[in-house]
Amino acid sequence: MIRGTSILDAARELNVRAAIDIPKDAYQKVEQLSRQETNRLSSYVLGKILENYDAATKDRVAMCADTGLPRYYVKIGNDAVIEGGMVQLEKALRQATADTTVSIPLRPNRVHPFTRKDNNNNVGMHAPTVDYSFEPDVDWVDITVTHKGGLFGGDYRMLFPADGIPGLKRFFLDSLAEFLRRGMACQPATIGVGVGGTKDMCVRLAKEAACLRIVGDRNPDPEIAKLEEELAEIGTSAGFGPMGFQGNSAVLDVHIEVAYAHTGGMPVGIQQFCYAQRRKTVRIFPDNSIEYREDPRWFTPYYRRETIE
Amino acid sequence: MESKDQKMLREFNLTLPVSASDIAPLKVGDAVFLNGLVFTGREGLYDMIFEKKKEPPIDIRTLGGATINASPTVRETEPGVYHVPSITGTASFRFAKYMSEFLKRYKIRFLIGKGGMSSEVYKTCFQPNGAVYLTTIGYGMGAVYGRGILGVKDVAWKEELGLAQAMWVLEVENFGPFIVECDTQGASLFEQVNDEINDKFLRLYEDLPKFAMKRMGEIGSAKEEIM
After folding, report:
1. Which residue from A43, A91, A103, A154 lies 20 to 30 Å from A188 (Cα-Cα)?
2. A287 and A140, same domain (yes or no)
3. Domain match, A13 and A101 both
4. Any CB–CB contact under 8 A between A65 and chain B?
5. Is ipTM strictly over 0.90?
6. What domains are there in chain B, each with its CATH number?
7. Over the stretch A281-295, which tens digit does the pLDDT of each residue have?
């Protein structure tokens, strides 16, 4: 049985690692962009971004002081048994958020939207967000945490089959125009594109595509994979570097996820995950042993299934 | 292609407070490091001063004339003693409407933040007050900027505004780098850069059809249809 204390301990450590240590895939991609970038301002900034990754890890401080909104993605094995059930798991995640807000520290970003009241612990109504998915034939629980800012970089639009891929490309360019100028999206960023489903589903998939797939990962559908590469090339050749300076270094990767849509619609969500990619995953086994890793492996064949089973 | 040594920016290391002649040599695209006191201010501070009409309990005019649109991460090591491991700027355009009065009343020389404001704001508010805008770089540089913070000198309105919105007075050394986005001439580096990028960027739209359904903002006024 997976104990509540195991979840609490693991979730605390998960927040520490996410806030401080940049995942290798993102680090290596920024390094590559830095080597290739020829614009003086963009090159200067990319060099400092790498310096900041190193400083955060060395000094054990948050790589970005906007520690975003801590958010959990929990994948539960169908055979997993959690002491105290799901209520205990949710309580542990809320407790870990409050504890690490003080201990790391994270910035207490969560406030009431009207009164702006701050509990100073990143916990409140519907905060932190916890999303769930399930996995057959396994008995572990995976918990991924992301710390992502949320003011700039995302957009939603209802497109139609008549708009098609050209329409998707136009909307993609619009989102670059909106959020790469002055570097509002804190690029270089991983751009997630969610297509289909409902309004809320495509936005959610876009965020998961941006935050829960590592740089270099391709969608298993070859047509979608091709479109990912095409959009990445468009984003790279758009002429932007970090902070909206000239360059070819605004994009870490583009990830596309799809959901079955209304027969008349093609809703599209776009989300950008900044270069301070705060994400870490832990797997908790029934014997309460734990394994940390950097690839969330959120998009499993089961999660993307098309069939009834 | 530029060689590696051309990729360095001109760097200035300045001690606060600065005079008009100290900042006159700064040009857009230069890098600046600061020493002295810098205070934070964002929604909460501007709201207290300009909407609720309250004067901060700390006299801003005595602090050295440098403010940053930001909030730090803060640890209270013992009651009333704070450690600030990291800080990053927040987007400044949201505070443009306060700049005219804010810069003048508190004799601000350096407004630091994320992404700058419009050249119109620089011409009407910054230039007349002898203020320049320094942008934080990359924007997720908490650890590097954190190394420039020696300590917390004071904090105002912590209870009223919370940790993220309180006005923190930070003692800094080699705090930077920041890039000069608006110099004493009132020009905007970001606007210049946009002009350079636009031709190439807009060409990507060629051959892409218009959307089937428009949105507000894409039609002339709210009395038109979006079809």
Report:
1. A103
2. yes
3. yes
4. yes
5. yes
6. 9-188 (3.20.130.10)
7. 999 999 999 999 999
